[in-house]
Amino acid sequence: MDNMYAPTSCNLPFGHKQEVKLYLEKSGFDSFQPRAVLFDMDGVLYDSMPNHARCWQEAMAKFGLKMTAADVYATEGMRGVETIRLMVKAQQGRDISEDEAQMMYDEKARLFGLLSKAPIMEGVLELMEKIKLAGMQIVVVTGSGQRPLIERLQHDFKDFVTADKIVSAYDVTRGKPAPDPYLMGLQKAGNLQPWQGVVVENAPMGVRAGVAARIFTIAVNSGPLPNATLAGEGANIVFDRMTQLCDAWVRNMPEFSFISHTVGKAMVAEITANDMLLAFPEDANDLLGNAYYQGFEGMIISTDKISPRFFDLKTKLAGEVLQKFSAFRMRLAIVGDFSAFPSENLQSFICESNRGRLIHFSPTTADALAWFEA
C-alpha cells in the first residue's frame, strides 16, 4: 500500500508519506490522488473567529443562553441553527423549532454585520495559487448561512472560487460534524470520490466532518484549542498556522527553456514556457540559478508567465522577486501590456524602475533588447 503514494504533481505535494499511508490503511482505499481541496471558511480563509465569538456571546445572552468563547470554537462549523437548538435543549430543557432557532441566529448575524470585516488569513491566497497551478479544484465548505459572507467569498477569492464551488448551510440538511457538507463539496467538484479530495479545517466539528467523509483532513490550528484536540478528532496532519501549510505545499516548477540573445558582449535569456513560471519568490531561485550558471547576464519574461499578484504591490511579491534578481546582479525585462494593471502605485513603480538599470517594463521584446543594449 506504501507504493500507492508517489511524489507527483497529482498527489499531495508536501510529503508526509507516513500520514498518507496511515490514511489509506484506515480508510481502506487503494490510492490517494487528490483533485480538489475543500476549505472551511471561518478561521481558515478568514481570521474571523474572534468576531464570531463576540457576536455569538452577545446574541445568545439576549435569549438567556450562556456561551463561552471556548463553546464557539468547539461548535464552529456546525449550522448555526443546529448549535442554537442544542444549546437551548441543554440549558433550558426545551426543544425549539427551526424557525425560532433561525430568528435567534439572525440576531447573531445582525451583530456580526456591524463589525469591521475580518481579514483574509495570511498565506491563504498564496496557497490557493499553488493549488490552482497544480491543476486542482478549490471548493469552500462552510456552515454559514449569511449571504453577505458568501458573496464576499466570491469577491475576495474570485481568481480561485466560483459560486458553484461553494457549499453553505443552504445546501445540506445536516451540517458538520456530519459528513454531508464535505460529501456535497466532492459532488460539486465533479462527483469526486473521498480519496480524490483534501479537507482543510480549523475546528473539531469540521475535522470530524472531514474524517467522517473519509477525506484526507488537514487541520490548521487558528484558535485557542491545543493541537491534540484536533489530532484527537482524527486530523491526518495538524499545522500551527496557515502560512506553515502554505510553505509546506511545495510547487513543482513547470518546464521552461531559454532563447539566447547576444546583446553586445552579454548574453540575455528570453524565457519560454507553456505555464506560469513566476508565482512565488522561490520560483525566482529556479530561474536565476539556471540562467546564472549558463552565463546569462539578463533575462526577459512576458507578463503571461507571471502571477497577477506580482503586479499587486500589496502582496510584496514583486519586491521579494526583484531583491533576488538584485542579489544575482541579473537584469530583468518584463514584456507585456501594462495597461491591464491600472493601479497608480504600480504605474509609478514602473516609471521609477524604467529610469534604472536593474528592471525594465517593456512593451515588446525588441524594446527590451534595446534596453539591454543601451
Written account of the structure:
With 374 residues, this protein is an alpha/beta fold. It has three domains: 17-45 and 119-248, HAD superfamily/HAD-like (Rossmann fold, 3-Layer(aba) Sandwich), CATH 3.40.50.1000; 48-114, Orthogonal Bundle (DNA polymerase, domain 1), CATH 1.10.150.240; 256-373, 2-Layer Sandwich (Transcription Regulator spoIIAA). 42% of the residues lie in helices and 14% in strands. It has helices spanning 17-27, 49-61, 69-75, 80-92, 98-114, 124-133, 147-156, 180-188, 204-212, 227-232, 242-248, 281-293, 317-328, 344-353, 365-373; strands spanning 36-39, 137-141, 166-167, 197-201, 216-220, 237-239, 256-263, 266-273, 298-302, 331-335, 359-362. The strands form two sheets. A six-stranded parallel beta sheet has the order 3-2-1-4-5-6. The protein has a five-stranded mixed beta sheet with strand order 7-8-9-10-11, sandwiched between helices. α13 links the parallel β9 (298-302) and β10 (331-335). α2 (49-61) crosses α3 and α2 packs across α5. It is elongated and about 85 Å long. Residues 1-11 have low confidence and may be disordered.
